[in-house]
## 1
Amino acid sequence: MHALPQTLVSGLALGALYGLIAIGYTMVYGIVQLINFAHGEIVMIGGFGALTIHLWLPGDTPLAAALPLMLIGGAIASVAVATAAERFAYRPLRDAPRLAPLITAIGLSIALQQLVWAFYPDAKKSRGFPQFQGDSFELANNIHIQRDDLFVLIAAPLCMLALGLFVARSRTGRAMQATAQDPDTAKLMGINTDRIIVLAFAIGGAFAAVAAVAQGLRAGQINFEMGFILGLKAFTAAVLGGIGNIYGAMLGGVVLGIAEAASTTYIQNIPGMHQLGGGGWKDVWAFVLLILVLLIRPQGLLGERVADRA
Amino acid sequence: MTALLEVENLRVAYGKIEAVKGITFTVETGRIVTLIGTNGAGKTTTLRTLSGLIEPLGGTVRFDGRSIVGTPAHEIVALGLAHSPEGRHIFPRLTIAENLQLGAFLRKDTDGIGQDIQRAYELFPILGERAKQAAGTLSGGEQQMLAMGRALMSRPKLLMLDEPSMGLSPIMMQKIMETIAELKATGTTILLVEQNAQAALSLADSGHVMEVGKIVLSGSGADLLHDESVRKAYLGED
Ligand SMILES: Nc1ncnc2c1ncn2[C@@H]1O[C@H](COP(=O)(O)OP(=O)(O)OP(=O)(O)O)[C@@H](O)[C@H]1O
Ligand SMILES: [Mg+2]
């Protein structure tokens, strides 16, 4: 039996996908202390942007060739919607009580779903998403990586590494850190903090599009509701990892993905628990994990205590 | 002598409460001007308005010959007005070197920035020794040195310092005041807000006393230092 390594590999792919989305939550929260609850829908929009490109391309285009174009199309759609949401929905509410942007985000989330449902051709039901043809790769004896998981397993670490370097090394990245730590003082340095905030939304949008393509490949379909549960899981991952910390978001995603895979595989084998295992309960176990981690480390795995941020 | 900064009838409110109720003063090139006054007099509010963090209710502000009311804070820095805020506000999780580099955020002359960082290290050797350390690990006085060094990194025409001696030991305080005097000697124009009226007035060419949002007394540093009402109210004499 190779249940454990196989569980780890499957969980890693799922977790990397959550992590990509979680980075969007955490970047925006880190800079404007806003939970963008419409971020799940930004993912969904990215999926439809990528699908649109796929439908435009000639039918015989190999998926490997189409993929970069689909990513660009998805990213354009996600980044456009994310930055427009910042500009027209959240920015006017920046000094409003915290509940106002939160409610706006929920409204925006419903509106985006309904817009896709109403106006995207045939989006009232799921739309097929291209998948790679062929068998899964056998890593070792009986441990398989699904072809369509390979994409996220490569893309997520690359995106993460690029973002980490950008934030730590570049002039703009340092301005992002300064804005996150002390926005008024950042302005006194000559940093246009409005632009930094837009950039945080844009990066989150681009990562959301990568995640959407990964999800489309895995599931073979996308639909207007896909953002809801993905967004909820990724938000969980961001909190689990310590909201505001980009490495924490990825770690939280991976921990959550592996926990979900493990709960699907193992819990039903625990005597007396067979009814609480399997795929149907994995979401419940994900949230149980969140509660447990927050009981022990309220600031999340890599988060700093709030006092340290002052 | 031309005035680098001209503030006229400046009024600032938080909601309905007017914290600055029409103040007028100027800062001439090469001078040190100080604002002193009790807690809540409106000194910090004045500086935050001048640097564009708060929109004024009314009045005019001219800096280096142009009106800057309504100009966003990040553009005001570019004009040559630097502000070291009350309470230091260094970036705690960035290193000391990174904090200094952020002070030069708008400059493009990499060589000049490097030289100015070296100069900051000469001015405050402790900053050089700890260059790679997170700024949040510095002591209060060291953070104040960093805040001042960071404000200088933009090569400002006018440096505004809000309570640079706050919470410092007498020795540190002495050091900060000496540094301000040195900056003046090199031609930097300074607008200094201080609780420590004795120290501020001894350094300043001129000073203004603020009380509940108004300037109630103005004069040369020496005159105010010897003014009876100032001595009573701010220098603890009776
Ligand atoms: N963000 C704010 N919201 C509402 N009122 C404020 C705010 N900041 C300051 N005030 C009020 O404005 C008035 C002036 O405050 P300010 O901080 O400018 O005084 P100050 O002269 O700098 O005092 P201190 O010497 O204690 O630093 C005070 O009455 C203060 O309570
Ligand atoms: Mg003050």
## 2
Amino acid sequence: MSNDIIVKAVDVTKHFGNFLALDKVNLEVTRGEVSCIIGPSGSGKSTLLRCINLLERLDGGAIWVNNELVGYRREGDRLHEISDVEISQQRRRIGMVFQRFNLFPHMTALENIIEGPVQVLGEPARQARERAETLLERVGLADKKDHYPSELSGGQQQRVAIARAMGMQPDLILFDEPTSALDPELVSEVLDVMRDLASSGMTMIVVTHEMGFARNVANTVTFMEAGKVIETGLASEVLSTPKSARTAEFIKAVQS
Amino acid sequence: MNATTIRTTGDIGKYEIAHLTLVPKRHIGRTVAAAVVLLLFAALVRAFSVGQIEWSYVRDFLFAPTIIAGLGNTLLMTVAAMTLGIVLGVVIAIMRISGNPVLSSIAVGYVWVFRGAPALLQLMLWFNLALIFPTMGIPGLFEFRTVDIMTPFVSAMLGLGISQGAYTSEVVRSGLLSVDSGQYEAARSIGMTHMKMLRRIVLPQAMRVMIPPIGNEVIGMVKLTSLASVIQYSEILHNAQIIYFANTRVLELLLVASFWYLFVVSILSVGQHYIERYFGRGIKSIRSSV
Ligand SMILES: Nc1ncnc2c1ncn2[C@@H]1O[C@H](COP(=O)(O)OP(=O)(O)OP(=O)(O)O)[C@@H](O)[C@H]1O
Ligand SMILES: [Mg+2]
């Protein structure tokens, strides 16, 4: 396996009861790549992201992040399920941005960003604070640092959430429909921040319905349906000349 | 007047009302109610003044050293029992939602047993523990006589604190459940361990929901400590009783004790307001947005 591969999912399978949410899904993401996942509702996009971040356990297959097997430790011929503490250690290197922001409501914008570095990484408070201020500046919210989430618009909250994920200095950030809960006029301010992040070389897996973003920013696009990967490839190819008829139909539907 | 007449008359003069005199709405019901209450209150005051209460006793004993010492013990017991209750409540609630079947069964059993028996009875059980276990300890290592350990203070603290823990754990649990699942996921996504997530993210938010009922429970506990008088713990009611056994001024001393209970509860109510405001930070209050 090449060192440039940051995420490798092999035959990932996940059931909820009898329902098959992921059916032998394969995915490969290289360092610095922006990989978009598209597909209809219920196709398993969120579930795949949650498996990468260990918010769900796999039933079959395996995922490597940074050449490290997610959820297990290999010793010779044995695979040991790792402890909760080890799971939390693996998660530190994977950022996640949620559809509904999920900022901590009892903390200001700045405190939201500092929380992880100080409490989890043990960074000195001062240093974390300075870095958080730089991050807030980068997402255009330097003047909002002492505001609580309830005092921010949806777009501003999502930008703080992105800054919070960046604050952990992860190898990879997962975005689960980051603009779906936003009013239309606020979508672009969040996409701008994500575009800036992409151009700085951050590896990103983005579940989105924003075809414009996928076309302009993504390197690769994966189309999922009913728990399966139907098609994956270079963004330009999948979006303009899809091989599968289902992909073409879906793209046409979301664009109109 | 209805909309059609307005349109058809077209009389502009009708719509000029600035020169008219405004007669405020009369609240007759309120006035009557206030009069009735004042009347009843006056009757009550009269009853107390002609009744056989020696108010000078009330005044003299209000700050009597025995009463003040009793008040101190009441407060001490409130703090001790409530602290034990809250600690147990948090631990039991976390065990209950832990997903570990052993821990959550223990939690369910705890609530079942200690919520099921009256606090007074539990207190007496602890106090009389020596009847079944004359000594306690680890054989060969250390051993105590149970009566030395189960002092009135310890028995009352255990009895009140442990039964309180059963109630408080339900309050804590509803607080934990009130926190959005997205908060748990966000905390995990930045790599927090389970305990750190509870401490830093979940409990502070649950506090907002927990504080009003816990405030109630603290206030309830102030009064519940009077049960400890039964096992000779010298809290305020017990001390008031000691005095009136000697001077037979029963009602006067009961009034002294009531005054102090009311006084403490009033102060706690004010404190509760400030604590609620602190844990409500970052959350728009329903009142301020109206
Ligand atoms: N915890 C769960 N328990 C049971 N079923 C679940 C659970 N989570 C997801 N599912 C089911 O798995 C399927 C895939 O869900 P998932 O959230 O991954 O879809 P999605 O592609 O993200 O859809 P959307 O675009 O609506 O977010 C859905 O049918 C959903 O109902
Ligand atoms: Mg989803």
